[in-house]
Structures are given as C-alpha cells and as structure tokens.
Design a protein that fits this description.
There is one protein chain. The chain has 366 residues and is an alpha/beta fold. The chain has a single domain, classed as TIM Barrel (Alpha-Beta Barrel), CATH 3.20.20. It is built from 16 helices and nine strands. The longest helix is centred in the middle third of the chain and has 25 residues. The protein is globular and about 55 Å long. Bound molecules: coproporphyrinogen III (CP3). Coproporphyrinogen III binds next to strand 3.
C-alpha cells in the first residue's frame, strides 16, 4: 500500500495531525460549516424523517418490531440511522428515535400507533398529573448513549444530529392524549391554568434538556429541537407561554458549542421569536421563501429548509425547478442547509430523494 492509498482518517490520535482526526473531519464537514455560516464546498443536504418512512430496507428491519421497541435497540437504531446516509449520500445523519422516547423512558404510558402517531393512555389535565413527570436520568436511556457512540464511529466524517421535542409539542401530545388538529385541551390549559401550564412546560424543558445532553455527551455533533406544532399559536401566546421554556432548553446546552437547530411547521409568523429562543440555525417550512425567512430570523443565524415535501411526488424536472427556487432564494445567505419544509412523506419514492441530494450538490459545487 502506498502512502496515497492510506485511509485519510488514521485511528491513533496521538501521532496524528489535528486536521486528520475524525473529530476534525466532522467539524470541517459542509453541514457543520454551514451551521457556523462558514464557506462550504457545496450546500449541505439532509431530510427531516430521512430515517425510516419511505425506505424498503427500513421496513425490512422493522418487520414485527414496534416503533418504540426499535428505538430501544442500539443495533436497530444504528442500522436505521445509517440507511439514508448510505443510500442518499446526505450530508448529515439524524439519530433514529422519536420525540416521545424520553417520556416513555420516565414511565409515561404511551405508544406510537402506526399511521397515527404517539398516543398517551391517560392524558394530562390536572396538577395531579404532573406527578407522573419525573426527571430523566442518563441511565433511563442508556441505549441512546450506546447507539450514539457506535454511530459516531461508523459515520466517520458525517455529522450526527441528535434531537428532541420542544416543550410545547410534547405538552400537546400529553394533554390531548394524541395527535390533534386544534390543540383545544392544550390551549385550554395554557389560557385557563397558566401556573399549571408553566410548570408542565418547565418540567418538559428539563426532560428535553437531559435528553439532548445525553446525545451531545455521547458524541452528537448538532441538535435539533422539533416544535412541530408551534405554528398553531399566535405570536403573543408563543412569546408569553412557550418561548421561555424553549429558551431554557437552548440556554442549557449552549456551553457544549454544538449547533442548535430550531424547527416548527406553519411558523412563518413565529420565525423571529423562534430565533430569539437561542438557536444557531432556524428551520422554515415551505410557506415562506427562504430569503424572507432569513430576514425574519435575523442576522447571525443559519437557515434550514425548505422544499415542500409534496413536491417530491412531481416529475423530476418539476422537483428540480422547485429545488432551484429554494437555492435561488438562499443564494445570498451565508449558512444555508437544504432540507424539506417538513418530514419526508411516507409514500415518497426514495430515488427522488437520492436524485435531489445529487442535484443540490451539483448545482452548488464551488
Ligand atoms: O428524522 C428522522 O428520520 C429520525 C427519526 C424521527 C422519527 N420521529 C421517527 C418516526 C424523528 C426526528 C421524529 C420526530 C417526531 N416524532 C416529530 C417531529 C418531527 C415532525 O414530523 O414534525 C413528531 C411530531 C413526532 C411524533 C410522531 N411519531 C408522529 C407524528 C409519527 C408518525 C405517525 C405515522 O405513522 O404517520 C410518529 C411515528 C414515527 N416516528 C415513525 C418514525 C419512523 C413512523 C413509525 C413507523 O414506521 O411505524
């Protein structure tokens, strides 16, 4: 073997120049550079819900295993997290889990029903219910520490994104008892029992913080806070009743220095406030063009998004034209991470995703 054939990432750190260590290669990846608003070799791409969903290899390994059970098995988590990286050549992996995993881990009686989502046995409605929310200890999710460790080894120079649900979105599942169109019980508590509401969100902020810390300490290179349903709120209500709890989460993980991403759906009117919560990167859905989203998000933040996931059902030229629109809107932004405006839809053709990654890489190669 000649010197040129050797792997560029030696395994012994002691005799290795700083820039050749695996950690340094991850830090220098297009994804993390974009999060820091540094120049990139190409616009990085990853997809929310890239793990699972539309991949046949995912369905194969999940056969006969419940969603929550699979989240507790490091071997499956590792395999499923790696699948979209292998297949699509995305610029980042997202840890395979679910936003309700930490709640399950502290003993909340819930399940994830196929085609429905998280369902909570006894919805939270009174102060008495708070007693069921104890703090999350790292030992409650030892399988996460194990899987993140294996994954960072296997991923090499590809960064791993850890994630958690934001307090409001978790509260909505707990209070409604399942997915909800109108969030009526959640809002009834927010308006009608503000002290109980604040305490519920603060406890969820602590659980979410603990879950993110486990992932960062095990080696995750970035974290995303999913406040998927925040778009159901008026800006004033978000500012008063939700922003403080999400801010606590971002503040509590700030010192790790890993990029913090904040994302919600239908949050065009909230982008400025979601930025204020303390993220380094703010995700936008497809309803606001990225240049306008960036204006609302404000200076010094990277922007993530925002192709409508339904566009992937159109013929290839139309997908490319819409992706082009996203890239054009992001042209002058330092720090753009290409993503969908929400998760990959279950019936998406996986090849359309692979082609989209290629297209974005080609179009933005510098
Ligand atoms: O992004 C990824 O690929 C990583 C894995 C991931 C899952 N859930 C796996 C999953 C992530 C990041 C999530 C986050 C999540 N979970 C969110 C925030 C993101 C968003 O979509 O807004 C929310 C709101 C949930 C709650 C939840 N869990 C929903 C709405 C569903 C879908 C129900 C359905 O079947 O349509 C789930 C289940 C779930 N989470 C699946 C997967 C792969 C499907 C379960 C299965 O395959 O049986």
């Amino acid at each position: 073997m000649t010197a040129d054939d050797r792997t560029p990432v030696p395994t012994s750190p002691s005799d290795t120049p700083e820039a050749a260590r695996p950690g340094a290669a991850v830090a220098d990846s297009a994804f993390l550079r974009a999060c820091r608003r540094e120049p990139v070799p190409h616009t990085p791409v990853w997809f929310m819900r890239q793990a699972g969903r539309s991949l046949p290899e995912y369905r194969r390994v999940r056969e006969g295993i419940g969603m929550l059970d699979s989240c507790m098995r490091p071997d499956l988590v590792t395999e499923i997290t790696l699948q979209p990286v292998r297949r699509h050549k995305v610029d980042a992996a997202i840890y395979f889990s679910d936003i309700v995993v930490p709640l399950k881990a502290i003993g909340i009686d819930l399940d994830i029903k196929p085609g429905v989502g998280p369902v909570v046995d006894r919805p939270f409605r009174t102060r008495e219910d708070l007693k069921r929310l104890r703090p999350l200890e790292p030992d409650d999710v030892a399988y996460v520490t194990e899987a993140v460790g294996t994954l960072t080894d296997e991923l090499g120079a590809t960064p791993l994104i850890g994630f958690a649900g934001a307090p409001f979105t978790l509260a909505s599942y707990l209070v409604e008892g399942g997915p909800s169109r109108n969030h009526e019980h959640t809002k009834a508590m927010m308006y009608g029992a503000p002290d109980l509401w604040t305490e519920l969100l603060d406890r969820l902020a602590e659980i979410t913080t603990a879950f993110l810390k486990v992932q960062i300490e095990a080696g995750a290179s970035a974290v995303q806070l999913f406040d998927s349903w925040a778009g159901a709120l008026a800006a004033d209500d978000y500012r008063r009743s939700v922003l403080p709890a999400s801010t606590k989460v971002f503040d509590a993980v700030a010192d790790y220095g890993v990029p913090r991403i904040h994302f919600g759906v239908g949050t065009g009117e909230l982008l400025g406030l979601m930025s204020e919560a303390g993220a380094d990167v703010v995700g936008a859905d497809w309803r606001v063009p990225l240049d306008e989203a960036a204006r609302r998000i404000g200076p010094d933040k990277a922007v993530q998004g925002n192709l409508d996931p339904a566009v992937l059902f159109a013929p290839r030229p139309a997908v490319e034209a819409q992706a082009r629109r996203v890239l054009d809107a992001a042209r002058d932004l330092p720090g753009h991470i290409f993503n969908l405006g929400h998760g990959v839809l279950p019936d998406t053709d996986p090849d359309a995703l692979t082609r989209l990654v290629e297209f974005v890489h080609e179009q933005t190669a510098r």
